[in-house]
Design brief:
Radius of gyration: 25 Å
Strand content: under 5%
Number of strands: 0
Helix content: over 70%
Length: 56
Amino acid sequence: MDMTEEEQRKARDREEIAARVAAFRATQEKFKREREEYFVSTLENARKVERPSLWP
């Protein structure tokens, strides 16, 4: 079944939107992973620091 020019344009638009949404989601996942890695490394570094005792 042949699609009309209008239907072809709409199909291309839907494909482009789907690709953009997928790219956006991938970027958001990347940012989420980077935030989690930063949190873990910062917490590990904070735990390594020797703190002076408050009680002599």
